[in-house]
Amino acid sequence: MTQAAPSLSLSGAARIDGAPLFGPLGLDVRAGRWTCLLGPSGVGKTTILRLFAGLAEEVEFTGTIAADDGLPLTGRVALMAQSDLLFPWLDVLGNVALGARLRGERPDLARARRMIDRVGLDRHATKKPHALSGGQRQRAALARTLMEDRPVILLDEPFSALDARTRAEMQDLAVELLDRRTVLLVTHDPAEAARLGHDIRILTETGLDELSPPAGAPPRPVDDRATLEAQGRLLRRLRSPA
Question: Which end is more exposed in the chain, N or C (fewer Cβ atoms within 10 Å of the end residue's Cβ)?
């Protein structure tokens, strides 16, 4: 990463086809930290990611989206969407190295292979997406996102298709490789937010709430008492009426 990771801010309201989606609200994402965003489906969590990524053309947004260094976010953001978006005609290696090719650059295939190895797909590097399981496809998409080495990383349920052991391993890997990046993670999993969040926000139909994370740096132990207690508080909050 050649650029320092900025803090992000979003302040405003969003509508789709004239119908209110969220807001007005204000969301701050601290520089070099993981901010976890939870909440029920349909309240605009994914839309917030897409607004930061500049990919929400269908959204009528009134307000401001900015980085604290005053520079545009264009070219500084990597987004991992809910769908893996793997190109079916490329193998795992080709998909992981895709970003450089799309920019007209020579891909660093050695680094791509190392990344594939880190996500546990070294034996599958020459397979096309149709030959992979859902979890393997998600790991390939994660490797492609990590390859981009951007200062701002937007993750939309990046571990949802993984079994419990692999999920914990990929969470640990992401925290390691995204050190000092500004990360906004959308998740439906209170345990994931309790493990990974420096900051935890819950978006509901009525607005945005902040919950205190457990003590200690992410990734926190899955069986740590404070982490489990935070998971319980988050679940109770998510189940409570808006």
Answer: C
